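Priority: low. Protein: Cytochrome c oxidase subunit I. Input follows.
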Amino acid sequence: MAVLLVGIAGLLARIEDWRSYTIAIGGGHGTHERTHAEKPSGILRWLTTVDHKDIGILYGVFAVVAFAWGGIAVVLMRFELMYPAEDFLSTSAYNGLLTTHGITMLFLFGTPILAAFSNYLIPLLIGADDMAFPRINAIAFWLLPPAALLIWGGVLGGPFLENIEPAQTAWTMYTPLSIEQQNPGVDLMLLGLHLSGVAATMGAINFIATIFTERGEDVTWATLDIFSWTVLVQSAQILFAFPLLGSALVMLLLDRNLGTTFFTIDGGGPLLWQHLFWFFGHPEVYILVLPPMGLVSYILPKFCGRKLFGFKFVVYSTLALGVLSFGVWAHHMFATGMDPRLRASFMAVSIAIAIPSAVKTFNWMATMWNGALRTTAPFLFCVGFVGNFIIGGVTGVFEAAIPVDLILHDTYHVVAHFHYVIMGGIAFAVFAGIYYWFPLYTGRWYQRSLAKWHFWLTLIGTNVTFFPMVLLGYAGMPRRYATYALTAGPVDLFTLLHQLATLGVVLLVIGQLIFVWNLVTSWLEGPLVTDGDPWDLAATGQFPREFAWFERERLPALTDGGEEATGD
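Result:
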């Protein structure tokens, strides 16, 4: 498959005038005749657009809605865990919220929010007119809303339809639980996941084709920006990982509905599901974290007054992470009784994969060292990403060691490690990108004081939420438990640490409400941007291609009367 994909990419790169659509906007290097047509207005524009910038905004809005859904679910769960006994959520309701939270945040927030940045920015960064396949780009997005409705089908349909309730399989959908749970909500969720995987795969093909064939004449592999490099590697990972997940989901649906025995105890066995799922599931972690690493590597130097330290090594480490991520899946299965020789090999690769991440981390710190730092909101979120990622990475190295993992497996230590990377890392990079490019996609400035309040509440809230979970894991608190009313054990310690984590979630909620308020009000009525170099990057030789496009295309369209302002 790898040879086939490389061959197809090479063929496309050598074929001229291979596109069949007409360029409507942009300033790329193609020889097509340029035409001009006004976009329709109102809702029709958003339903029919194939403009990569519009589709990027659609991805972003969808991801924010999904983030709110997953956030509400986790708030309810955390308040249930404030005290040991069952309070206001039943066990089944807790399990349903647990499932919808995990799947929503990974598949409906994580991947789409990164696609939002990729769609909007990559054509601008590489000098392309649009994505290679604009219509496929639009189709890939419009598969997501029905996928979300299917994934949430058990929650949305439960109050109105008989015999349907939320799936209670957790996001890993382990067999035989996911086979024996005879609830149509599980089938809806599996179909929705399959649909979201198709959308992600279509998007990945589009990004690979765009970066290979649509680059401007002055954009070579040596000068390709670091964000585009990370998206290219991410897209290659998606091509190999998501089809496998789709195949496993189809087999699970057949087991549930047609009596096949792919994952039953008397058939292929429940461990087969774990192997197939985690062969997708661990590359998925890097599918989610590589573009945020690219965002930080791209944005951080802009506010340090210097270029990224060790650019080539950051690219090499990105390629290494893309390859090594497919060789560590069984570290999720150390406690299953697999062959010790296999466990040892997976432990070695799991520890080794920390090296490319450490390369990036030291390069980020070297970039800041003795730099002319400007503590803008994008810079602060980049620094927060680095700090949280270090904690998430170190806890991951502990779990990669077999003896330690056998103690910490399925405890809250795993939850803390995962969320330090996902919430403490990915979300921080996303916020850095939103604030950095806010003048680009809105033409306005955000409220800088509210942005810094957002940062500090999010940073403090993240660590108050997840560091107690590290301690809960060492104390032996299992994850996925709705109650912990023990007759013997450190129940008082569990209660205290859960209450601290709930306090952290409250701080996070306040911070995100400030973020949404700032985003919406500034987009509608913030001061207009009047300078094509809003971050004063030309002085350090880092004036980027996308703001050159902004200066050329967006500024002349601004209405008179704008108020010149600076923001951070």
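Residues 20-35, 557-562 have pLDDT under 50 and may be disordered. Residues 375-529 form one domain.
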